[in-house]
Structures are given as structure tokens and as C-alpha cells.
Amino acid sequence: MKNAIPKDSKTFGRVFHGRVKQDSLNSRLFADVKNVDDFYLRLSMFAGNKMGDAKDTLVFLDEIQEYPHLLTLLKFLKQGDRFTYIASGSLLGIALARPGLTSRCMPR
Fold it and tell me: Is pLDDT above 60 for 3?
């Protein structure tokens, strides 16, 4: 995953662009995330101590369909309100239509 902080980001001081497709082919840092705490631990390994809070940190998960369990986890991440999240994917609609996309993640 690549950390990108755009110089022109006026809304968010910290933007972490997680390229999930690249992660699935390389380090697989997020491949076996089981819950919110595990996600935050992996994110901190990726981002270091640069994390802020929901007002100034955006976590962008690109090509999230590569890890369907992260789609399920998004609900719990949002409920925790620790950061702001955006998820996208070129094949996201197809992934969501797949049968069997059920809760494999627990909130904590």
C-alpha cells in the first residue's frame, strides 16, 4: 500500500491511499484482518505515527473488492468514527452482487 498525502488537500491534512489490489499481490498486510482493532493495528504499521482523527485523516481504500472482508468491516469502522473512509473499486458492483458476501468480521 502506498501512502500519499496530496499537497493540495484542504479538507484532510492526512490522506492514506491504500491500494488494496497491490497489497493483495505483494505484502498482504490487510489480507487476514479480522476486526476493527486488527485493522487499526495494520493501518498503523502502514502509516506509522502520522494518523490523526476523523476530522483530519482520510483513509482511501482503492480496489477494496480484492478483500471482501474489508467491505464487511467498513460498517464497524464507520461506527467507530476514528477516521473518515472512502472505498472504491472498478469491480466493486460485481463483488457486491456475489453471493456469499456475508459478515466474516467482528467489530472487536
Answer: no
DSSP result, 23-65 = HHHTT-TTTT--BHHHHHHHHHHHHTT----TTTEEEEEETGG
Chain centre to alpha carbon of residue 106: 15
The 10s digit of each residue's pLDDT in 63-99 is 888 888 898 899 899 999 899 998 888 866 665 666 6
Task: Identify the DSSP state of 106.
Answer: B
DSSP 61-96: EETGGGSHHHHHHHHHHHHHTSSEEEEE-TTHHHHH
The whole-number pLDDT of residue 66 equals 85
Query: Could you give the CA distance from residue 62 to residue 86 in angstroms, rounded to a whole number?
Result: 8
Q: What is the DSSP letter of 13?
A: S
Closest CA to 61 of 103, 69, 79: 69
Does this model's pTM top 0.90?
no
